[in-house]
Amino acid sequence: MHAFNYNRAGSVKDAQALLGKASDGRFLAGGQSLVQAMKLRLASPSDLVDLGAIKELSGIKVSGATVEIGAMTRHAEVAASSDVKKTIPALAALAGSIGDRQVRAMGTLGGSLAHNDPAADYPAAVLGLGATVITSKRKIEADKFFKGLYETALEPGEIITAVSFPAPKRAAYAKFKNPASRFAIAGVFVADTGKGVRVAVTGAGPVVFRVPEMEKALGAKFAPESVAGVKVKAEGLNTDLHASAEYRAHLISVMAKRAVEAALK
Question: What pTM does this model have?
Fold first, then answer.
């Protein structure tokens, strides 16, 4: 790990000012991705601006059929929240499936979304539920937030402050996980929003994506057999030591079916 300057921000405004003074600064949320990259010397920022002390970035609020979660809220907090379990149980279950206990105790919602790892779980929930990412500058719809491999719509210096999740009629998440990291080799979040069905896939491609064919089939009939016959093309999907693109394409159909089954329980 290369040497760097450590800064602890007291507010969002303070964090932006500190980053602006750095030659190559990065915001530090839970550190579960950035610190590991720094240890491997894949990232070597001149400065880290720690967001951990900014109180307004943490917490869970429920207003009617909407759950707003602060960007610095830990995965374990979301998984254990009675409000989240009651309003969007699929979101609490997803948070509880992320990594191991240490990752869930330290990792944050905002950090996961800003990093946008192609195998991360939270992007599937944000896209699947049609959530809104709230930043220090604006509000970004889920469909416009995820741009590509480790790429988002965030501008330099822009900080995710919270995410607003609309409660669906029913939803569930199913993933085929890497046994070591528990990242999704293929994960599918299915949500019946009341205004339509959304199906979001993570782990299978370079960035989280929706499957319109499955959404249309489930819109006609929300049942496991509706997605069982929908074949996803392997073209453009990931191939690595864990699974081929063809196998991931197969897993999408399997996980989608399981997610629908879970949503109906």
Answer: 0.95
